[in-house]
Every structure is written in C-alpha cells, then in structure tokens.
Design goal:
Elements (H helix, E strand, L loop, with lengths): L1 E4 L2 H30 L9 H5 E2 L4 E2 L1 H33 L2 H15 L3 H16 L3 H26 L3 H9 L4 H31 L11 H12 L2 H31 L1 E5 L3
Antiparallel strand pairs: 1-4, 2-3
Helix pairs in contact: 3-4, 3-6, 3-9, 4-6, 5-6, 6-8, 7-8, 8-10, 9-10
Length: 270
C-alpha cells in the first residue's frame, strides 16, 4: 500500500495569503479614507493604556475583556461538544423519545435568534435556576452552537460504513467500545475542519454576551468609546484582537489537520 501526500490544501493556503494581506490593506485604506473625509481626528496614543496599565503593571480594560471572552469561549465549547455529541448519538442510536427530544431541541435552537435565546436564558431561566450572568451566557452559547455541532458530528458518524458497527458487535465489542475504539478514530480527522470553523463562530458570537452586561472585550470597548469617544481606534483594535484570536485557531486546526489527515487516497502498489 502506498500513501500519497496531498499538498493541495497547503498550496492553496500559501496562495491565499497575498489575497488576505491585500484585502486587509484595502479595508484599512477605506476606513482611513472614510474617516479623513468625515473630519475624524485620530488619536492612537491612548490605546497602549487601554491594553496595559503601566503605572500599576496590570492588564488594561481591553485585555481584561479579552480574558473574559476566552473564558466564555472555552467553557461554552466544552458544553457545546457534550451537547452536540449527546444530541448526535440520540438521533442515531436513541429510541423514539430520545430522537424526538433531539429533533425538538435542534429545530427550536436553529430557528430562533441567538440574541433572543440569550435574553431568555438570562432574564427568564437565569433567576429560576440561580444562574449568574457568566454561566447564563455560557449556557446560551453552548445550546446555540451545540445544535450545529450535533449535525457536524452526526454527518461524520454517518460517513463511517454501517458494516463497521456490525463487525465490531460481532467481535463482542459494546456500543461504547465500538464508538471509542473504532468509530471515533476515523471520524475525528473529518470533524476537525468544520469544528474549527464552529469555534471561530463561537468566538465571534460571544460578543453578544455584552448585551447582558458581561464585561467581555466588546463590552469594554463600548464603555471606553462612550467615555473617550475613540470609536474608530477602539473598534479597530478590538477587530484586530478578534482577528488574531481566530487566526490562531485556524492555524492550530490546520496544523492538527496536517498531522492527523495528511495522507491522501490509498492506492494499491506493486
């Protein structure tokens, strides 16, 4: 058996960088040109103080907000993965009741806005369940993203031939052992790219938690804009932070994808 390495994805990524940089330069030019025509007075000198308090050697409001954003994203993704996995397994292996509950959950979450779900979780269910705003935000985000991750996981599991389940059961493996030792090692590499895209979406969607007064990066920027009137500088800085965070996730996913799925189609050799 001969394994042929597929370098097409790497070549495409290398070709995409010039276009990416050109797009950033064009966007920066348009923003600067638009601000100049509107008479906006730029003041970048205050941004370092918003990132780091040099007098007290403590993080500034932007870095504090970024830390809250990272915490919300990490906890939300953990719950997202659990909800997505349970929902996918319920639809594939569960009985009629489990499949019905999973279907109701998916249709309810996917067909209502995240903002509405966030408000319901915080203002309606939060007081009943005794949830602070942090965990209300985490739970709302995980419920929303979990519905989409369940479809990703379900499609990956369905890509594995049914005969492998049956062969594993014939060998005496339980359903859990079959899933852990046979199915999951095959579906993991396939699920990595769409899951990375979902994590990036989760990071961006986390900006909505500022609407329930959770002091994430977006909330801190809104407060600073209201106090210092540096709208362009602060929002561009926040966009750069989100961009750097998401590019890091993309790079990490691409690295893992190359290491786990770099082998291309298997061809018979002499």
């Amino acid at each position: 058996m001969i394994f042929k390495l597929d370098n097409s994805s790497r070549a495409r990524a290398r070709r995409a960088w010039p276009a990416f940089v050109l797009t950033l330069v064009l966007m920066a030019y348009l923003v600067l040109r638009g601000a100049a025509q509107s008479g906006y007075q730029w003041d970048w000198s205050r941004l370092p103080d918003f990132l780091w308090n040099w007098a007290d050697l403590k993080p500034g409001p932007l870095l504090r907000g970024l830390w809250v954003t990272i915490q919300v994203t990490v906890w939300a993704f953990i719950l997202t993965f659990l909800l997505g996995l349970i929902t996918a397994l319920a639809r594939l292996l569960g009985g009629p009741t489990a499949r019905g509950l999973a279907w109701v959950y998916l249709e309810l979450i996917r067909n209502t806005p995240l903002m509405v779900q966030l408000f319901v979780m915080y203002f309606v269910l939060g007081p009943v369940l005794g949830l602070p705003r942090f965990w209300a935000a985490v739970l709302a985000l995980s419920l929303f993203e979990g519905a989409y991750l369940s479809e990703i996981i379900r499609s990956g599991l369905m890509a594995v031939q049914e005969g492998q389940w049956q062969a594993s059961w014939c060998l005496g493996l339980s359903t859990g052992q079959t899933f852990r030792h046979v199915i999951l090692p095959q579906t993991g590499p396939m699920l990595l790219p769409p899951t990375a895209s979902l994590v990036i979406s989760l990071i961006k969607d986390s900006s909505l938690v500022s609407m329930i007064a959770l002091y994430d990066l977006t909330k801190e920027v809104r407060l600073l804009v209201g106090e210092y009137y540096l709208a362009f500088e602060l929002w561009l800085c926040a966009a750069g932070i989100y961009l750097a965070l998401n590019l890091s996730i993309s790079w990490l996913a691409s690295t893992l994808d190359r290491r786990t799925g770099s082998a291309g189609p298997i061809e018979a050799g002499g």
